[in-house]
Amino acid sequence: MNLLNMAKKSVDIVSSHWDLNHTHPSACQGQRLFEKLLQLTSQNIEIKLVSDVTADSKVLEALKLKGAEVTYMNMTAYNKGRLQSSFWIVDKQHVYIGSAGLDWRSLGQMKELGVIFYNCSCLVLDLQRIFALYSSLKFKSRVPQTWSKRLYGVYDNEKKLQLQLNETKSQAFVSNSPKLFCPKNRSFDIDAIYSVIDDAKQYVYIAVTDYLPISSTSTKRTYWPDLDGKIREALVLRSVKVRLLISFWKETDPLTFNFISSLKAICTEIANCSLKVKFFDLERENACATKEQKNQTFPKLNRNKYMVTDGAAYIGNFDWVGNDFTQNAGTGLVINQADVRDNRSIIKQLKDVFERDWYSPYAKSLQPTKQLNCSNLSKIKTPSNQPATHNATGREPLST
Predict the structure, then answer these.
(1) Are strands 110-111 and 301-302 parallel, antiparallel or unpaired?
(2) Is 383 within 8 Å of 321 (Cβ atoms)?
(3) What is the pTM for the complete model shown?
(4) What average pLDDT values come out for the chain (400 residues) when binned by 10 residues?
(5) What is the b/e burial string over 167-205, where b = at least 16 CB atoms within 10 angstroms of the residue's CB?
């Protein structure tokens, strides 16, 4: 709402979900956003929205009738995937990027995390090119063989943006997925994550909804070692302490526990090899409710998708599941900071958020043999795709 209240010229939003109206009491925040967007369309403010073509949204249709420009991306045709990107650009100056989509559940039921940059036109310029890339696919059934130079990345892992974040010397760049959507000078999300883990000296803390190093098709499953292997490398070869905070919910694939057990086993009898895993369950107390009781409520879920180390952070749109990175469209943000002791530094704040959740009563160590019988995990299935800052005055950077 703060970003929309600041808007004077333009609002560009990419979201995988567009469902802001519902009778549920917690839908009030989504309704307020919808009403504000409708109000902006009547104030001669340019509104551009990007959605997956599969979204059947009355919200989008209503905004389109009021003059908003809506682009539908056919990710199924492009890469047999889905749009999962979630970011806002306001007046080509301010940016939000994170896990929350424009869905009332995301705003009122889920636990999300994002970052906001105020007055950062340099970073906006780079993110605007990803938005322009999405918009360029309008009415196209396939991705072009070559991208326009106007869509090339401005900053990447080799050439990072130098800036002050909350008066802390920093570097930053945005990354993109899938590889098909990475023109020249644009870092692939996997490479961005690699750079963050490789630079870690002491610890790597990872918070995601699902962790499953598997790529799935309609006919088979294959091991996807990219991120799983990088964690093993950090543990064994560099003695970096790793913590994994994963959501425990009805869509948790039982294979997750097998892979976690495998990660833990690699540290057996290896000095200075430290891997700890906890599962975050916001509905543990209701896990054994009857089917009728469950149908009367909406799931509450920790949908954070970020990583923080002793010198960098990655905030993105994906869980650490193979199909997300290989098929779906998502955008990530990498921030490097040398001095992370200041309470205003992004790294310090993000670490505090992780540790708050890690030591909360919702985070539990859960062994594969101790799964709740009532959690309906009898069948192996692929997790479904569910639907913070820069300025000179040091505004609050993290939004959770």
Answers:
(1) parallel
(2) yes
(3) 0.89
(4) 96 95 89 96 95 89 96 92 96 96 92 95 96 93 93 96 92 96 97 97 97 90 96 97 96 94 93 95 62 58 96 96 95 90 88 97 74 44 44 44
(5) ebebbbbbbbbbeebbbebbbbbbbbbbbbbeebeebbb
